[in-house]
Amino acid sequence: MPSFIARATAARTALQTLACAVGAAALLSASPVLAQTARDIRGADPVVPLASEPPAKLVIDPPLAEPLTLVDANHHPLDQGSVSFVIPPTTAPTGGHH
Questions:
Q1: pTM of the prediction?
Q2: Rounded Cα distance, 27 and 29, in Å
Q3: Where do the domains of the chain lie?
Q4: What percent of the chain lies above the pLDDT cut of 90?
Q5: Rounded CA separation 56/23 (Å)
């Protein structure tokens, strides 16, 4: 008669094998869902291209030779002149609401 440890090890191995089989079955049954295209999900295009017009073109500019410099437009000085602000003093209201 096998010992308790041998039986527990065999049971654990059988349970792990069953878990792997269930996981593989779930993965294989879900793979058709993962292989769907946008056309499968959304259907045909709602827009029909006109035969009298040429097909659309996508124009992509070549990359720039040097990297773009990042400038914060809100804090970029437009010139070196100075700007002064004049704020009139506030007065207390003299009575009713305006």
A1: 0.28
A2: 6
A3: 4-41
A4: 0
A5: 46
